[in-house]
Amino acid sequence: MLSRFLRLGISRKAVKKSPAAQENSTKERMFFYPMNEIYLCKYGELALKGLNKGQFESVLLANIRKKIAPYGSFRVFSSQSTIYVEPLGEIVNQSQLFSALLTVFGISTVCRAAKTEKNMESIVATVKEYIPPFLQGKHSFRASAKRADKKFPLTSPEIAAITGAAVLEATGGRISVSMDNPDATVTVEIREEFAFVHADAVKAAGGMPVGTAGRAMLLLSGGIDSPVAGYMMAKRGAKIEAVHFESFPYTSERAKEKVLELARIMSNYCGPIRVNCVSVTKIQERLKDTVEESYFTLLLRRSMMRIAAALAKTRFCDALITGESLGQVASQTMQAITVTDPASDIPVFRPCIGLDKEEIIEIARKTDTFETSVLPYEDCCTVFAPRHPKTRPTMENVLIEEEKARLSLLEKEALDSLQIYFLPENE
Ligand code: ATP
Ligand code: MG
Predict the structure, then answer these.
(1) Where do the H-state alpha helices sit in 52-151?
(2) Which of 169, 258, 305, 425 is paired with 333 by a 20 to 30 Å CA distance?
(3) Which CATH class is domain 2-203?
(4) What is the mean pLDDT of residues 305-312?
């Protein structure tokens, strides 16, 4: 390994420095990391942005820095639609760091790469030393080259041919070349200052950086759909805050804990989440005592929309998000949505509206909320649920029933006594 450092032009003195001494020089620290390994994060849709691309990039860089802070010290910068994450010393947990990068919205792929000098001798040596472990268990590969620096003396096909030969030599012919359908692709990227060598990139979260598309208030139940709805909107760049309606003592403390756990899991992708818990017990009791049973759920949902919209405004959120899916239950028929929607005076986004339950479950599994969502705790919507809910309500009749309940004071009281939680707790 020492010979590699010397080939890269780093003095023996620098390599031998004590860990404390390394702290003093960024340049030396950079080289102390084995194989000069860094992480290359490619943009997704962000690459298509025009003049305002810089704003999106700076939010993405800030989100990445926050996300990886627990794993060590890094230099994070962007160049040519790629973000470079360069360790400046020991990494606390390399696989957790890699997984963390995969959850940052705005990044489409992540790969580990070895940084090397921009000459074929260094590149070949790096390929031979760094690449073989990535090809374990693979039967075929293809070499490719990308030249951002057009002044580099060799063409891309020439670099790829030399790289392919180096891989064959390093693997002792154990793996063959396949141009059409390889198990792996080995890539050499010739960039402005350095060259980078890597095997296949891993698909990341995609989407747009959280915080580039406004703030929205998610109506978060303990079910499967609403965490997925929050994830989908965060993926488009919305910063998520949540409101959860509880109905203590009809709903339990454990039901609330489940919702907080869902928010904690969601924060892996969405960033820290503030959860506002609002009790609707008195509203439900009033509805039960005053309105025709078949309207109960619709009126509760309208009340929830009003409270959420009022709360959203105090929290600088410009929209609501729900996990509703067309026709899933009686309160989500087109007519039911038509009468609940106007209760909010800000837009209501329903990203799951056209998804089948199976498709929603697939996302819930991918984002790790599914196992928690299916824990069997009650939700306020199931308390006093009518036997025959209205599936084709009219606005006129809904308003007549709503008038009987006189909810406005109770809604204000509910908002005044909200409980606030921050997830994850240690943020
Ligand atoms: P989910 O839709 O989250 O799986 P669910 O299917 O049990 O839960 P629905 O009755 O379908 O819930 O409610 C539709 C939407 O209303 C939810 O996706 C959620 O956005 C909102 N909602 C329902 N119950 C609550 C609650 N207790 N607190 C906050 N929002 C809620
Ligand atoms: Mg639902």
Answers:
(1) 53-68, 94-102, 120-130
(2) 258
(3) alpha beta
(4) 98
Which of 273, 381, 421 has most ligand 1 atoms within 8 Å of its beta carbon, as the pocket-test mutant?
A: 381
Encoded tokens for 60: 């993405």
Residue 30 CB–ligand 1 contact under 6 Å? no
Angle at 235 between CA 212 and CA 237, to 5 degrees: 10
- CA torsion sign for 274, 279, 283, 289 is positive
pLDDT-above-90 percentage for the chain? 79
Give the orientation angle of helix 281-290 with respect to helix 395-405, to 10 degrees: 110
Closest approach atom of ligand 1 to CA 331: 10
Distance CA(233)–CA(207), nearest Å, equals: 9
- For the stretch 393-421, pLDDT in tens is 999 999 999 999 999 999 999 999 999 99
Nearest to 245, CA basis, from 327, 320, 355, 339: 320
Contact assessment for residue 242 and residue 218, using Cβ atoms and an 8 Å cutoff = yes
pTM for the structure as a whole: 0.88
> Closest ligand 1 atom to the C-alpha of 380?
27
CATH architecture of 215-423: 3-Layer(aba) Sandwich (3.40)
The span from the CA of 341 to the CA of 272, in Å, is: 28
Whether ligand 1 lies within 6 angstroms of the CB of 211 is answered as no
Pairing outcome for strands 74-79 and 176-177:
unpaired
Which atom of ligand 1 is nearest the CA belonging to 323?
Answer: 18
Domain ranges of the chain: 2-203, 215-423
Residue 226 C-alpha to ligand 2 middle, in angstroms? 7
